[in-house]
TrEMBL record:
The keyword Translocase does not apply. The gene is fabH. Residues 259-263 are annotated as: ACP-binding. This is Beta-ketoacyl-[acyl-carrier-protein] synthase III. It is found in: Cytoplasm. One of its GO terms (molecular function) is 3-oxoacyl-[acyl-carrier-protein] synthase activity. Pfam families: ACP_syn_III, ACP_syn_III_C. PANTHER family: 3-OXOACYL-[ACYL-CARRIER-PROTEIN] SYNTHASE 3, BETA-KETOACYL-[ACYL-CARRIER-PROTEIN] SYNTHASE III. It comes from Streptomyces albus.
């Protein structure tokens, strides 16, 4: 007899990839009006990885995906979902290319665009594939090359972001298994769409007739307003999933939040009443890697011993749209690659 309950998504593989080139604050300050002290004080970031010319988002995604599949002990998935703000091209979607590069065959593959919350939206989409019986395993990837869309003269954004990719494998399972994911909470508020934006390049502001240029192709952000919204939204969503899971905030062993700014991370922990020691920090070495941030931080925490099997994890994110969300996860005994 078929179960009356849909299968629970279970995390069974994890991998990440960072391009080899490292750009330190000192290097950045040689061509920008900033300094290591200024960047560290305001963001907590010491360095970031940057993709070399000719390296696309799909290249990073393929490397992370291969490592996630290896971690899961397989070379196949029934579907692939990519979260990104920096696809290889405006059209077509990048996910089918990644699936082809991985040799997955003609599996369903699609892009999800929710900026820095994209990985959580992609997780929820993957959970839906499992619940609908469309797949037994789903490869979920978050990858971005923000270095391609940053204004070279804008220190407020150029110092923040790095390139990278992270991936997980989800399989259909039960709620009492190690690695069980959920509940998930997702939300949006389009009235704040202009707080995080790339003004040109879409149908609202396309290439001008008679020119080959966009009026403003760079990433823009209203930092102070984003800070306040990010703290409040991520804290509220994290509290919601912890309570719905039956843990309560006090039962969270580790908070793995989107790695945007160390002051945001600590402010979220403070608002929740969690010790800052339970908030994992990875951005000091990689910066804000956008959609890759959450899986890369999970991989870093697991590899460094901050996560142990059975730990109660809450992960949360905030990004353009505005979008935000959180998810609860019982940490499995897996080794990230």
């Amino acid at each position: 007899m078929a179960s009356a309950h849909p299968p629970t998504p279970v995390l069974c593989g994890l991998g990440g990839w960072l391009p080899p080139r490292i750009v330190t604050n000192e290097e950045l300050s040689r061509g920008l009006d900033t300094s290591d002290t200024w960047i560290r004080t305001r963001t907590g970031i010491g360095r970031r990885h940057v993709a070399e010319p000719g390296t696309a988002t799909s290249d990073l995604a393929v490397e992370a995906a291969r490592r996630a599949l290896k971690s899961a002990g397989t070379d196949h998935a029934d579907a692939l979902i990519l979260a990104t703000t920096t696809p290889d091209r405006p059209c077509p979607a990048t996910a089918p290319l990644i699936a082809a590069e991985l040799g997955l065959g003609t599996v369903p593959a699609l892009d999800v665009g929710a900026v820095c919350t994209g990985f959580l939206y992609a997780l929820a989409t993957g959970a839906g594939f499992l619940a609908a019986g469309l797949a037994g395993t789903v490869l979920v990837v978050g990858a971005d090359t923000y270095s391609r869309i940053l204004d070279p003269a804008d220190r407020s954004t150029r110092a923040l972001f790095g390139d990278g990719a992270g991936a997980v494998v989800l399989r259909a399972g039960t709620a009492d298994e190690p690695g069980a994911l959920g509940p998930l909470v997702l939300a949006s508020d389009g009235t704040g769409a202009d707080l995080i934006r790339v003004p040109s390049g879409g149908s609202r502001d396309p290439v001008r007739p008679g020119t080959a240029h966009l009026s403003d192709p760079y990433f823009r952000m209203e930092g102070k307003k984003v800070f306040r919204n990010a703290v409040e939204r991520m804290a509220a969503a994290s509290r919601q999933v912890a309570e719905r899971r039956g843990w309560g905030v006090e039962g969270i062993d580790l908070l793995v939040a989107h790695q945007a700014n160390v002051r945001i991370l600590y402010a979220v922990a403070d608002l929740l009443g969690l010790p800052r020691s339970r908030c994992h920090v990875h951005l000091d070495r990689v910066g804000n890697t956008a959609a890759a941030s959450v899986p890369l931080a999970l991989a870093d925490a697991a590899a460094g011993g901050a996560l142990r099997p059975g730990d109660r994890v809450v992960t949360c994110a905030f990004g353009g749209g505005l979008t935000w969300g959180a998810a609860a996860l019982n940490w499995p005994g897996i080794s990230p690659h």
